[in-house]
Every structure is written in structure tokens, then in C-alpha cells.
Design a protein that fits this description.
This protein has 209 residues and is an alpha+beta fold. Helices cover 31% and strands 35% of the residues.
């Protein structure tokens, strides 16, 4: 048989075999057509799921916008003065104490009250830094104790009772404080969460040595 005829017969035989097998691939009984149908079905399923997620996101966004609008309420009432954090006050019973009965003060207990612009006590959320500084003439100020109350810890320091409403703050003085440190000046710095407003207060205390 001429080579050209042999080649044509081989091509026809090959086409017949693949045609009978439905263009089977991989020996698993699946054809290219079947594979494409399955892929199209999977793609359609994924597209529908994505569309469903997009609809859900749009719905949640709409609900969030509505909730924000509801919480904002109407415009402020005429004549109303919103309270804002304006200052810090040291309440009664604030001062140094001796916790181990050795005759020397080793801690400063601070009862502090944040107040608004009208001098009214208010509960706040924020970060409080407390420093005790030794001040002496012709000598640079020296920080002898420093502590920061992060928002959660500061919130846990809220007290109400016989001593009134206040935040109870402790600042331990270091052991071995030089005898010439007869007093400390306590500096408070409160940064309100949300607004970033910063208020400060300062007071000096004589120490028992």
C-alpha cells in the first residue's frame, strides 16, 4: 500500500477510535465534552455564590448606615451644652502613705476626679500617666516614679462609695529614695479615648522620711 494511503488509513482509524470513545481522556470514562460541562456547572455555581455574598455585603452595609443614622439622632437641641472633659481634680484623702509601717512613706494614693467645663464629675475612658518628680532649687527635676494606666486598667480603678465618686490611683515610690527627697510633685496626664483631649493636674506632697 502506498505510504499516502497508509497514512490516510491510520488517520481514519484514529478518528474512529476517538469517536467511538467519545474523546475519552485519562482512561476514567470522561470526555472533553463532559469535562467542559462539569467545569461550566462549577463556574455557574461559584458565580451564583459570589453574587449571593455581594448581595449580603450590600445588605449589611445598608443596615450599618441605618444604625449609624439612628444612633446619631436629630440635630442637637438649641441651648443644650454637651459636657466635655475639661480638667482633673485631686479629691479628699489624696496623699502619701506608709504601707509597711517603717515610718517612711512609700506610696502616693491619688483620688482623682475628671470634670467637665461646668466642674461636674464625669466618667471617662482613656489613658492616665502618673509621675512623681523631685524638685529642688538649682537642680534639674528628677522623675522618681512613673506609671501609666492603660484604658482597661484605668477603667477598673473607678470607685464609688463613702469617699465619693473617683478613680483610685496608686503610685509606688522606689525603695532607697534618698533622704534629701523630702517631697514630690505628682503630675497627672489624662488622654481621653475617642476625642484625644488631654488634661493635666499637678500637686505637691510632703513625705515622711
Amino acid at each position: 500500500m502506498p505510504p499516502a494511503l497508509r497514512l490516510a488509513a491510520w488517520v481514519l482509524l484514529t478518528l474512529a477510535v476517538f469517536g467511538a470513545a467519545g474523546c475519552r481522556i485519562g482512561g476514567d470514562g470522561k470526555s472533553f465534552k463532559n469535562e467542559n460541562d462539569e467545569l461550566r456547572a462549577e463556574n455557574l455555581k461559584l458565580s451564583r455564590a459570589i453574587d449571593g455574598f455581594k448581595d449580603r455585603v450590600r445588605l449589611l452595609g445598608s443596615e450599618l448606615s441605618t444604625l449609624r443614622a439612628d444612633r446619631q439622632g436629630d440635630a442637637p437641641l438649641p441651648g443644650a451644652i454637651p459636657p466635655v472633659l475639661s480638667a482633673l481634680k485631686f479629691a479628699r484623702y489624696t496623699g502619701p502613705i506608709d504601707t509597711d509601717d517603717d515610718g517612711a512613706d512609700d506610696r502616693v494614693v491619688l483620688y482623682i476626679q475628671p470634670v467637665d467645663q461646668l466642674g461636674r464629675m464625669r466618667v471617662v475612658a482613656g489613658r492616665l500617666n502618673v509621675q512623681a518628680v523631685s524638685l529642688k532649687a538649682q537642680t534639674p527635676p528628677r522623675v522618681v516614679a512613673d506609671r501609666t494606666y492603660e484604658p482597661r486598667e484605668f477603667d477598673e480603678r473607678w470607685r464609688t462609695g463613702l469617699t465619693g465618686d473617683h478613680y483610685s490611683i496608686d503610685l509606688d515610690l522606689p525603695a532607697g529614695l534618698p533622704d534629701d527627697v523630702q517631697s514630690v510633685t505628682v503630675q497627672l496626664t489624662l488622654t481621653e479615648a475617642g476625642t484625644g483631649v488631654v488634661v493635666e493636674a499637678q500637686e505637691s506632697f510632703v513625705l515622711r522620711r
